[in-house]
Design goal:
The chain starts with 10 loop residues before the first helix and ends with a helix. The protein is an alpha/beta fold. It is built from 18 helices and 12 strands. The chain folds into 2 domains: 4-319, Aspartate Aminotransferase, domain 2, CATH 3.40.640.10; 322-471, Aspartate Aminotransferase, domain 1.
Length: 474
């Protein structure tokens, strides 16, 4: 970003700067004195869009407006110069920013930072994969003069198939940046043994898709920070309604907001949310100070993985009820998992809510329904919720799993997850097909594994569909 010393200012430009400084101070005070005191649901519903904003700027519109415009006009050359030097708030061009995406970003930053004493900020992206790329690329730059400088990062092997391809193919095979896979993320020694002087970050997906992998966020964050490295977490499945990694020490969270946070399935979108003042061994003070704003205004300005303003507002509207949706779908998934666990044609069930799951106790440490202690329905106590994602193995191998899958009538066969409608897939032939048999073994994905995301239907109707489909397996 340009500094004030790089731009020749005039009295008129200084007036724009002073006015913007006052606006930002007022907004920061509103966050500190008002928004930070709200409960989670109120933050999700309102974000930073206030009655004052609506009446003064948007003709009283209760819902955030959609700015279907490529660019912003300026009053004069002084305002344009100050804006393009990032000396005043601007949206200049929708590849960089847009008022609609700002409201989306501010709300997500507040939700992921709920209960965190520090400050968080967010950069919107066009998809979850764009969010991962956006979050990681700044750490993979050459920091020395040598063009052959070795670089590596450490990541959980249990992750979404697209993530595996980005790490294994796009970064490792095509760019020579080594990905060091952690097979058992609960083993802190395995993480530690893979870190050296060329490591740039630690990355973990939890709960992982589709195998429900998990790890101790606080311990891995402490390990990362002891080596002056950031911890990046993909928390797509949990959403901030059930888990907020930044509160436990993570530096950055990536979200495929397409999934659980959105639920409607109307479009694709992503986000990078970061604490201000991240830990990193990359010598870039601007990046350390406000990572999300840095990537938004500089790297993403140049690479362009921007989010469409219409999608931003549609997704923002979906996010307003995320706590109640995750509560309902978690409870339904638990009921479905308990039923499947007793079925004679099911080999095993992977769901973190089941007491006999090997990671149940660890997941219970981190996965709680936000603000459940203020809900009279739960008697003033915090309650664990484990999300809507589960998986199970059908007895008899891949062919039996396909027979069951093809017999589903109400559950949708699709690669999506987090929908308001229940969706199932067989990862070995879909989301994780391209990583090959060896990669699937590494990620613990057998060919008879079915991934199920339970939606908002009544769980008895989901169970009835699963029951009739299993009855057709021969």
């Amino acid at each position: 970003m340009a500094s004030p010393e790089d731009v020749v200012t005039s009295p008129n430009m200084q007036r724009y700067i002073d006015r913007s400084t006052a606006y930002l101070a007022k907004r920061d005070a509103y966050i500190r004195d008002v928004v930070k005191k709200w409960k989670f649901d109120t933050v999700a519903v309102h974000g930073l869009y206030s009655v004052e904003d609506a009446i003064e700027d948007y003709q009283g519109s209760i819902i955030e407006p959609v700015f279907m415009s490529t660019s912003q006009a300026y009053r004069d050359s002084d305002e344009m110069a100050a804006a393009l030097a990032y000396m005043i708030p601007t949206w200049c061009y929708s590849r960089i920013a847009n008022p609609s995406t700002y409201y989306y970003e501010w709300t997500l930053a507040l939700l992921e930072g709920y209960g965190f004493s520090g400050e968080t900020s967010c950069c919107s992206t066009s998809s979850g994969m764009a969010a991962i790329m956006t979050a990681l690329q700044p750490f993979l730059v050459h920091t020395h003069k040598s063009p052959g400088e070795p670089r590596n990062f450490v990541a959980t092997a249990q992750c979404y198939g697209g993530t595996f391809q980005q790490f294994n193919v796009r970064l490792q095979q095509e760019r020579g940046i080594e990905c060091r896979w952690v097979e058992d993320p609960t083993n802190l020694d395995e993480w530690a043994q893979k870190i050296d002087e060329n490591t740039r970050f630690l990355y973990g997906e939890l709960p992982s898709n589709p195998g429900l992998g998990f790890f101790d966020i606080a311990k891995v964050a402490d390990l990362a920070h002891s080596h002056n490295l950031p911890l990046v977490c993909d928390s797509t499945v949990a959403t901030p309604a059930l888990m907020r990694p930044i509160s436990h020490g993570a530096d950055i969270v990536v979200q495929s907001v397409t999934k659980s946070l959105s639920s409607s399935g109307f479009g694709v979108c992503g986000a990078v949310i970061a604490r201000r003042g991240i830990v990193t061994n990359v010598p870039n003070d601007e990046m350390k100070k406000d990572f999300a704003l840095y990537i938004k205004y500089l790297p993403n300005r140049d690479s362009g993985p921007n989010l469409h303003p219409l999608q931003a507002v549609m997704t923002l509207n979906d996010m307003r009820t995320i706590r109640s949706k995750m509560d309902q779908m978690s409870q339904s998934t638990m009921k479905v998992a308990e039923w499947l666990e007793k079925h004679r044609q099911i080999e095993s069930v992977q769901y973190l809510g089941l007491p006999n799951h090997p990671l149940h106790d660890l997941a219970s440490k981190y996965m709680w329904l936000v603000d459940s202690e203020f809900d009279p329905a739960y008697g003033g106590k915090r309650v664990n919720r484990y999300g809507h994602l589960m998986s199970f193995c059908v007895k008899g191998g891949a062919e039996k799993a396909r027979q069951f899958f093809d017999a589903l009538q109400r559950v949708w066969r699709a690669t999506d997850l987090g929908r308001i409608k229940s969706v199932a897939t067989i990862p070995a032939i879909s989301t994780h097909q391209q990583q090959g048999e060896e990669g699937r073994k590494l990620a613990k994905i057998p060919p008879n594994l079915v991934r199920l995301c339970v939606g908002a239907e009544h769980p008895d109707d989901v169970i009835a569909d699963l029951d009739q489909a299993l009855a057709k397996v021969r």
